[in-house]
Amino acid sequence: xxxxxxxxxIITLATLGLGTASSVLAATPANNIKxxxxxxxxxxxxxxxxxVKNHLEASPGVKxxxxxxxxxxxxxxxxxxxxxxxxxxxxxxxxxxxxxxxxVCNNTLKSRKLTAxxxxxxxxxxxxxxxxxxxxxxxEGYVYLKP
Length: 147
Fold this sequence. Notes:
The protein is an alpha/beta fold. It has 2 domains: 1-29; 31-145, Hypothetical Protein Ychn, Chain: A, CATH 3.40.1260. 42% of the residues lie in helices and 16% in strands. It is built from 6 helices and 5 strands, in the order ααβαβαβαβαβ. The protein has helices at 2-15, 21-27, 45-58, 88-96, 106-111, 129-140, and strands at residues 34-39, 63-68, 101-105, 124-126, 143-145. Strands 4-3-2-1-5 form a 5-stranded parallel β-sheet, with helices on both faces. β1 (34-39), α3 (45-58) and β2 (63-68) form a beta-alpha-beta unit. The longest helix is centred in the first third of the chain and has 14 residues, at 2-15.
């Protein structure tokens, strides 16, 4: 039965000028997946960045947004470094070149008496980190991951 349905699909697609089923499937973006990585803990930045890098390697073209609030913004601030003294902004810029976006919670900045000037490029400021995570999930269909 499945072979018969597949045959009908191929014939239908061919008559519509859409090619074979395999060519249609090949033309479908394999990575129309959108993921929001949520971070609220400064001890997980290295793990998060490694996860994002690995995710991009396994699924080229995946859309990734990193949203931080609370202590999770620490690595996205200017002059932030890992335990070995490597600047986080370099890692963020490398990932941003592959389309990753970094977003910092303005509520956290305000609570620390910081302004947007404290945020390292390429990160941007959003009004609320948790509201941004919720919005991406509910309104834009992002999958939630928290390393």
